[in-house]
């Protein structure tokens, strides 16, 4: 895959939540489990910008990774 979902999510989350969150994700989450990464990002972004906005942002983000067949419910 040309784009790594973990790297791309960090580009969204790090400016908002800082380097500590970046380190936490790098150390504890793996790109091979994208559903866990999306669940974490959804939880964090929902608290920051509200659930509707987080859903919109992550739905647009996931459209870049159609092979993963993930969606925000």
Features:
about 70% helix, mainly alpha, about 70 residues, 4 helices
Order of helices and strands: HHHH
Number of strands: 0
Question: Mean pLDDT, as a whole number?
Answer: 93
Proportion of strand residues? under 5%
User: Structurally, how many domains make up the residues?
Assistant: 1
What sort of overall outline do the alpha carbons produce when their principal axes are compared? Answer: globular
Q: Measure the end-to-end span.
A: 24 Å
Determine Rg (CA atoms, Å).
Answer: 11 Å
Biggest sheet, in brief? none
Q: Helical residue percent?
A: 55-70%
Number of helices in the DSSP assignment: 4
Structural class by helix and strand composition = mainly alpha
What do these coordinates show?
- This protein is mainly alpha-helical and about 70 residues long.
- It has one domain (about 5-70).
- It is built from four helices and no strands.
- Helix 1 runs parallel beside helix 3 (about 35-50).
- The longest helix has 16 residues, at about 35-50.
- The N and C termini lie far apart (about 25 Å).
What is this structure, in a nutshell?
By secondary structure, this protein is mostly helical. 70% of the residues lie in helices and 0% in strands.
Secondary-structure blueprint of this entry?
Elements: H1 5-17, H2 19-28, H3 34-49, H4 51-62
């Amino acid at each position: 895959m040309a784009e790594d979902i973990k790297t791309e999510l960090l580009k969204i989350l790090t400016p908002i939540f800082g380097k500590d969150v970046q380190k936490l994700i790098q150390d504890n989450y793996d790109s091979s489990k994208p559903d866990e990464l999306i669940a974490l990002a959804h939880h964090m972004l929902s608290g920051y910008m509200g659930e509707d906005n987080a859903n919109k942002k992550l739905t647009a983000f996931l459209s870049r990774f159609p092979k993963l067949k993930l969606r925000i419910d």
